[in-house]
Design goal:
The complex is a heterodimer of chains A (222) and B (85). Chain A starts with a strand and ends with a helix. Chain A is an alpha/beta fold and 222 residues long. In chain A, the strands form two sheets. In chain A, strands 2-1-3-4-11-10-9-6-7 form a nine-stranded mixed sheet, sandwiched between helices. A two-stranded antiparallel ribbon of chain A has the order 5-8. Chain A has a single domain, classed as 3-Layer(aba) Sandwich (Rossmann fold), CATH 3.40.50.880. In chain A, α1 packs across α5. Chain A has five helices and eleven strands; from the N terminus they run βαββαβαββββαβββα. In chain A, β10 and β11 form a beta hairpin. With 85 residues, chain B is of the alpha+beta class. In chain B, 32% of the residues lie in helices and 27% in strands. Chain B has two helices and three strands; from the N terminus they run βαβαβ. Chain B has a three-stranded antiparallel sheet with strand order 2-1-3, covered by helices on one side. The radius of gyration of chain B is 16 Å and the shape is elongated. The chains are: A alpha/beta (222), B alpha+beta (85). At the A-B interface, loops of A face α1 of B.
């Protein structure tokens, strides 16, 4: 059966359509959801797409994280539903507390928009199980607040439990331990700063290295 | 109208590149005694009715859970002494 993946649109979301396209290319069915919805329309998984929800007012992702639909997202995630937060979606996952840490202003204050090499370091999550360990991927980043911060104790915990899902090969923004993506302990919730949904079509992107995330959720195997 | 003030600051151990950029400009312009700048936020919250302990508690919950992110920020909350408006 086709995996139905909800894509939530918030005011200021930019990448919901790219996410839907990527889900379809990966073999899933994208289901549009709206931030004021109260239920998830029976989807099997959720993507929180990138963009500037609420114009990044207050803090990036902070106001979206208290949107009406997020109660259902948080409850479902705690019950094991796969959730992928991309860029602004990663910021939302941190703001809800589903993932530890926070994304802050890039160390050099630049908005960075270019493909970056990352290495997949956890292939057990719902969103990375397609990959072999230590796979290198070329995935675009486009963020001004992508600097991952966490307490020393929290960082130790992430590393000890293998919850770092991907690292930058060349840290572009000051993120602790080159972290580009992390997951929760169950591995169903993943936050990633680079944009796999922008790397699914060789004609308009930096290649197709992002497809593996969407193959993972659709249950595609090699 | 009564006001409650919430001030939010990045924690000391959190890198504040905005503050550092401001400091850099100050130093560049000859203000060599400026050793550091950290940038925060101030919220002025107008409330209906007198500021009771319960109301302060209610706003403090918002300050702790919405206006600030405890991972990277600290907050202070106090009742505005007011200007007789």
């Amino acid at each position: 059966m086709t995996t139905r993946v909800g894509v939530i649109t918030f005011p200021g979301t930019l990448d919901d359509r790219d996410a839907a396209t990527a889900i379809a290319l990966g073999g899933g069915e994208a289901v549009p959801l709206w931030h004021k919805d109260k239920d998830l329309n029976g989807v099997d998984a959720i993507v929180l797409p990138g963009g500037f929800s609420y114009g990044d007012y207050l803090r990036a992702g902070a106001l979206a994280s208290v949107s009406p639909i997020m109660d259902a997202v948080v409850d479902s995630a705690k019950e094991g539903m796969p959730v992928l937060g991309i860029c602004n979606g990663f910021q939302m996952l941190c703001e809800t507390g589903l993932l530890p840490g926070a994304l802050t202003r890039n160390e050099n204050l630049n908005f960075i928009c270019r493909p970056e090499l990352i290495t997949i370091t956890n292939t057990k999550t719902s969103w990375t199980n397609f990959f072999q360990p230590n796979t290198e991927l070329l995935i675009p980043i486009k963020n001004g607040e992508g600097c991952y911060q966490i307490s020393d104790e929290g960082l130790k915990n992430l590393e000890a439990k293998g919850l770092v899902v991907a690292r930058y090969n060349n840290n572009p923004n000051g993120s602790k331990n080159d972290i580009a993506a992390i997951c929760n302990e169950a591995g169903n919730v993943v936050g990633i700063m680079p944009h796999p949904e922008h790397a699914v079509d060789g004609l308009v992107g930096a290649g197709v290295d992002g497809l593996g995330f969407f193959w993972s959720i659709a249950g595609v195997t090699v | 109208m009564e006001k409650i003030i919430v001030e939010v600051m990045p924690k000391p151990e959190i890198l504040d590149p905005q503050g550092r950029a401001i400091q850099g400009v100050f130093n560049r312009d000859g203000h060599e005694l400026v050793l550091g700048v950290r940038q925060g936020k101030r919220f002025e919250i107008s409330v209906n009715g007198p500021i009771t302990d319960e109301l302060l508690d209610e706003i403090e919950e918002l300050a702790a859970n919405v206006l600030s992110n405890p991972i990277i920020e600290t907050y202070a909350i106090y009742a505005d002494e007011g200007d007789g408006e």
